Structures are given as structure tokens and as C-alpha cells.
Amino acid sequence: MTHEIAVIPGDGIGQEVTPAAVEVLEALDPEFTFTEAEAGDAVAEKTGKALPEETYELAASADATLFGAAGETAADVILPLRDAVDSFVNVRPAKAYPGVDAVRPETDLVFLRENTEGVYAGHEDRLTEDVATLTRVTTQSASRQLAEFACEYVDSDGFTIAHKANVMRETDGLFRDTVAAVAEERGVATDEVLMDAFATRVCLDPTQFDVVACPNLAGDVLSDLAAGLVGGLGLLPSANIGEQRALFEPVHGTAPDIAGEGVANPAATIISAAMLLEYLDYGEEADAVHAAVESTLAEGPRTPDLGGDASTSDVTNAIIDQL
Amino acid sequence: MTHEIAVIPGDGIGQEVTPAAVEVLEALDPEFTFTEAEAGDAVAEKTGKALPEETYELAASADATLFGAAGETAADVILPLRDAVDSFVNVRPAKAYPGVDAVRPETDLVFLRENTEGVYAGHEDRLTEDVATLTRVTTQSASRQLAEFACEYVDSDGFTIAHKANVMRETDGLFRDTVAAVAEERGVATDEVLMDAFATRVCLDPTQFDVVACPNLAGDVLSDLAAGLVGGLGLLPSANIGEQRALFEPVHGTAPDIAGEGVANPAATIISAAMLLEYLDYGEEADAVHAAVESTLAEGPRTPDLGGDASTSDVTNAIIDQL
Ligand SMILES: CC(C)[C@H](C(=O)O)[C@@H](O)C(=O)O
Ligand SMILES: CC(C)[C@H](C(=O)O)[C@@H](O)C(=O)O
User: Fold this and answer.
1) Cα-based angle B13, A176, B88 (whole degrees, multiple of 5)
2) How many independent structural domains does chain A possess?
């Protein structure tokens, strides 16, 4: 079956690492057709819109989207794109790679972040000069959908629910209770941890945790914390999964300091492309990409962020050679 | 001038570390009168109320309160107590001590956490079986009060504003803009960072930051993250500062696994007592306590959490001996 893949490089190093990941996909020769579209600061400057209608429509109709990065306009691009693919979960693995400096090399976590609600779908008002409000919503249905995904994701293992239900008793409480109840129905074990306690404990010993399900903002902050433990955002992939389609993006940004120099590390985007392959049922190809990235990270060549002097294309070619 | 100090040991090791800190204060012989009151799980079991009216009133009238810890009922105790002392800022230093194992020994941060608003003062509703909402408020006035405190706190140095205004544009936006404007009026430099980026960056290099002002929930999570970097909650003090009165508490909890054994580390509560001394203008005495704690941590005796076999009172006596 042919799959339509939308490719949205965006700004900065997005323009370098996204084509690199497409090269890797092409080398595997799956039945993909690629269509490119614009988003981000550059197109906003030209047209006034960071996310052109056509780009939204493309992501909303493609089987999968590969997104690079956006600059100042990141929130205006990525939040509607997550919506375009009807994504209910943001999957964020945070794993340290052998041969890469990490604060906590033993870190190997996956965050399953609720991707539709919380403050991200909050309604804000500036009521008076003094007062602004934000109303966030939590639903049983979104919590249930995340929980069902989590149960399938962990298979027979358990997972952890991170939340702040001691303060947000109704909203985070509903999230926690719903997720725990779904897991129990399905015979999947869960434990729970307050998000602040998680922040302390994951630094002290990240091996205490494995798969962590959380509300949207908690998932944002805690997965970025885990990124710090594995040595930075540079190597982290992510997947925004929906029922019909999905969007894959590196967690890093546009890296304006090195953009245009051809030395950006393509690994995070290439690993995101591996998650795309997995989503479209190319399991073997996905495994091959993961293995090729891992051995390239361990043996080189390496881009400057990892202490080497290789270019983006040196690394991309080395990965392709190992497929 | 005589100062009235409320002492609320609470549950678990709160019953051991709070009297230890009072001993240290008594050894300095300031003009303090101490009045003890109950709060927490134990009193809730007896009376149905985790925070008895008399305890609230005592904290609301004393010059300063020293609080230990509460168990399951922590939120029902500490949130109203912060309110009792009209606290607008929670000061949370996170510093690694020489001789104490830390993930990032170079960490030396102070969080200034807005202490009245955000989701902590949120109004929650369970609208339908499916839907719960939370409305949080941010005011210019509370942001301004925090900012004024921050400017005095850093003196001529600058500080960092951590927020998530790219998503919470009105609420965190109002917070950020107000704090930045107040600092500018007063000639204090600020920079800003998104709270998720802060989580990554502080792991990679905590020396990038110094004093960090944040909204309530961000302050909760980011300061607990910093606690992880310095080796855990065990040594972290905190101060809830109001205009007329204040409340001081270790960041750690009740440690039920070791409660009653007389081996709890009293350092965090004793450092909190040093912050109390400072607040009441006993600057020299505060410095003496800080110095005595630091040298005891470096040279021992040490409680089991730091690899020693000393008791709470061994450590307390060692600190008192060095005053
Ligand atoms: C750009 C921003 C809106 C986004 C988020 O907060 O979700 C980013 O931080 C992320 O985690 O992908
Ligand atoms: C017990 C809880 C309500 C409290 C908070 O979230 O403020 C605690 O985590 C803290 O940081 O003091």
C-alpha cells in the first residue's frame, strides 16, 4: 500500500535534518510518496501565517507527517499540527545512547503525554487590567483514550501515572482515576507519583521509572527534564499519534546558532522517522534504522554537538550505509 | 523585642526534626516564645480536621511559624497555613553541600515561587461525568509583589523568569510581562526561559541560573527538580514569606519509613530555622546556624540518609556545639 508522507522542514536546522531523514526513508524504499510544505517563521514573515492553510490540510490528509522545527512561531505551528492529525498522545522516549555524554546514562524512559487537553486547550481571558484567567478542561474520554494506548504500549508491563491530583483534585484527579481504572480493567499494573516528586526522584534514580503517562503540561516539562538527564534535546524523537494519521518530530528546536552550516545532528529526526516507519507497520525497517543510528552514535562519524567534526550528510550517509 | 514563634511539628519525622530546630533556636537565646500546635494526619484521625482552627489562628497571629511535615493530609495543612501567614512568595534555595553526594554538585539556585495563585487557587468543577474544569487566576498585583521581592532579594544582580507564556499567553504572559516591567523600573536585569527548556538546561548546567522567579506550579516542579540535582529533598529548607509574618518548613515529607527511630536528618529544618532568624532580623545568628550546619554536613556526625549512623540528636548537638 502506498503511503502519503507530508514533509514540513520548518525553520533553522529543520531545513537540514528533515531532508536527511527523508533520505534515510528513501533508502529503505518503502512505498511512500513525499509532499513538502512550509511552516514557521520564514513563511510567517512572507505571508503573515506561520501555518498556511495548505500545510494544515496536507498534514490532515497525509498518512503521516515528518516535521522539523519552527522558531519563534513554534507554538503556532506545532499545536495546530497536532490537532490536524487528531493526535491524542505524544510519545516521547528519552534514552541515553552509549557513547554520548549524559548526566544519567542509565535513563531509559518513555513519556506518554496526553496531547489534546489541559492548559494547551485552555480558554484564556484578560478580565481586567489586573486579572487574567485560564480554564483548562480534563475529560474522561481523552484520559481513557490515553490509557488504552498506554496499556497496549506497555503490553504486559505496568506503567506510572504522574499528576498533581493533590492540588488539582477534580481535573488531574479525573485523569488519574480514569487512567488507573482503564488499566485495572485490562489487567495492567499502574503506580502513581506526584509530578513534583517525580522531578526529584527521576534525577536521583531514573531506573525507578519506565513508561510514564501524564497530562499535557506535566508531559511537556517532565519529558524535557528527562532530556536533560540524557544529555540534551539533541537526540530525542517524538511521535504525535492519532487514530488515522500521525506526526513525527525531533524534540529539539531550530538551533539558530548553527543553522545553515550543514553540521546539525540529524539523529533525532531520523529516529523520529523510525517511529513513523513503526506507525505505518514497517517494523523491520524501523528496527534497522534504530540499529543504524545507535551504532553510528557509538562509533561515529559525529557532528560537533557530540564532539566530532562531521557534517549532517556524513552522519546521514553513515546511517544509510548501515541499513 | 519578643517574637512569638508557632511550632507545628506535624506527622512522622516532623515530630523529630522540628524539636531539634527549636533546640538550635533556644541555644541562640533570641527573645522568642514558642507555642506548639497540632496539624496533619494524626490530628485528622482524632478530630476529623487536618488543620485545627486553633493551629490556623496561631500561625495567623505568630510572628513566624516553624512547620515540620504532614503525611497524606499535606495539601490540607500546608496550603491553608501559607494562607494563614499571607505568604506571597515561597523562597526555595537548592544548593549542594560539600561532602554530600549530588547529581550536580555545582548547583546553587534559589527559586522565588509565587505563592497565592495559579492552579493552587484554581476553582474546579466536575461539569459532567466526562468533563472537569479548572480555572486559574493570575493577577498583575500578585506578580508585581513577587517581582518587588525578587528585586530586593537579588539586590543588584539579575534574575531569571521561568514560565510557559508561549502556551498560557494571557496568564503566564501577564506574569512574565509584569515581573519584567517591575524589574526594569528598578534597574534589575532579567532574562526569561520557558519552564520546559529550563528543565532540560538546568540538568545540563545548573550554573547557568541563579535566582529564578516563577508562577506557583512551575516553582513547585522546578524546585523539586533542583532538589533532585543536589541529592534529594533531605537538605532543602523553604520560607513562605508574608508582609507581617512567615512560615518556614523543610521541603521533605514525613519519611514514614524511618519515623520514630530518632535518626531523621534535622538539617533541612534547622536551615529553615536559620531563614526564620534572618526574617526576624537576627542576621548574625542566622549566619552562625548556616555555618554550623555546613561544617557538620562536611565533617559529621551524619545521619543514615548521608551514610552515617548518628542520631537526630547527635547531629543537633554537633550543630549547637559549633554555634
Ligand atoms: C512549542 C511548544 C508549544 C511545545 C509544547 O509545549 O508542547 C514544545 O515545548 C514541545 O514540547 O513540543
Ligand atoms: C503538599 C503540596 C500541596 C505542596 C505544594 O505542591 O506546594 C508541596 O509539594 C510543596 O511543594 O510544598
Assistant:
1) 55
2) 2
Which of B230, B257, B272 lies at the terminal end of a domain, its last residue? B230
Task: Just list the catalytic residues of A.
Answer: 120, 164, 196, 220, 224
Grid coordinates standing for A283? Answer: 517494523
Return d(Cα A71, Cα B276) in angstroms, integer. Answer: 45
Of B189, B115, B178, B177, the C-alpha closest to B151 is B189
Judgement on whether residues B7 and B114 belong to the same structural domain of the protein: no
Question: pLDDT confidence of A248, banded at 50, 70, 90?
Answer: very high
Cβ atoms of B160 and B193 within 8 Å: the answer is yes
- Give the model confidence (pLDDT) of A8-25 as tens digits: 999 999 999 999 999 999
Residue A98 lies in a domain: no
Mention every residue, 6+ apart, whose C-beta is less than 8 A from residue A305.
Answer: A232, A234, A265
**How far apart, in whole angstroms, are the C-alpha atoms of residue A179 and residue A143?**
6
For residues A76 and A11, give the distance between their C-alpha atoms in angstroms, rounded to a whole number: 13
Which among A130, A134, A224 is the nearest to B170, CB-wise?
A134
Q: Are residues B201 and B149 in the same domain?
A: yes
What pTM value is reported for the model? 0.96
Nearest CA in chain B to A104: B103
Domain span including residue A175: 103-230
DSSP state of A96: P
Domain closes at, from A176, A210, A230: A230
Residue owning the nearest CA to atom 11 of ligand 2? B220
Angle at the Cα of A10 (from A6 to A11), degrees rounded to 5?
A: 165
Q: Is B109 left (phi over 0), alpha (psi -120 to 50) or beta?
A: beta
> CA-to-CA distance for B66 and B10, rounded, in angstroms?
10
Q: Which residue of A has its CA nearest to B121?
A: A167
| CB-CB neighbors (< 8 A) of B174 in chain A | 126, 132
Report the C-alpha gap between A19 and A39 in whole angstroms. 15
Residue B98 domain flag: no
Q: What is the mean pLDDT of residues A53-70?
A: 98
